[in-house]
Amino acid sequence: MANPAADGRFDRRTALDNAQRLAQQNKLSQAIEAYEQVTRQDPGDWASANTFGDLLVRANRTDQAIREYLRVARHQTDAGFIARAGAIYKKVLRLDPTHVEALRETESLNIQRFAKAGDPAKRAVEEQAQIDQKAAAAIVHPATPEPALASTMDVPGDRHDCTWSLDEPDPSPA
User: Helical H runs in 79-118?
Assistant: First the structure.
């Protein structure tokens, strides 16, 4: 389903028109394929990526839709469009109310949008973002290997003689 222009290059306008026509005709699998081609050729077309996610939801391809929505939301956040990113994260939460990244990012975006300058909550979010970026960088580019954890650790007050199981009541005093 390539849409080459007369000179053999990808014709985005024709491909997008075709994708929109297929979506209006409710030809979901063909519309999804067409939007996927558009977003692959032009990854910066966030409106088409959002529509692509909507079509994936209509086709009950929820996991794939969530991945697409998260990609769009991350870009919107990076571009400074906090309200738009929040709306996209809400779409993710409608599909999966327990999605950890969407919950965390929605909270962070709300604090950014509504907290006043100098607010401790806003500072905490900014500090956490810096920590998250450093942690992500350490994962991608570790400076030194992590030291091996000791196989046994003595913690004061730790009981090593516990023998009860979940099938029996707890014998410790209440």
Answer: 82-95, 100-114
- Are the C-beta atoms of residues 86 and 113 closer than 8 Å to each other? yes
- 10 forms beta bridges with 4
Radius of gyration of the chain (CA): 24
Tens of pLDDT, residue by residue over 64-74, are 999 999 999 99
Separation of alpha carbons 129 and 118, rounded Å: 16
pLDDT at 61: 94
The 10s digit of each residue's pLDDT in 145-156 is 554 444 444 545
172 alpha-carbon distance from chain centroid: 44
107 vs 22: CA distance, rounded Å: 36
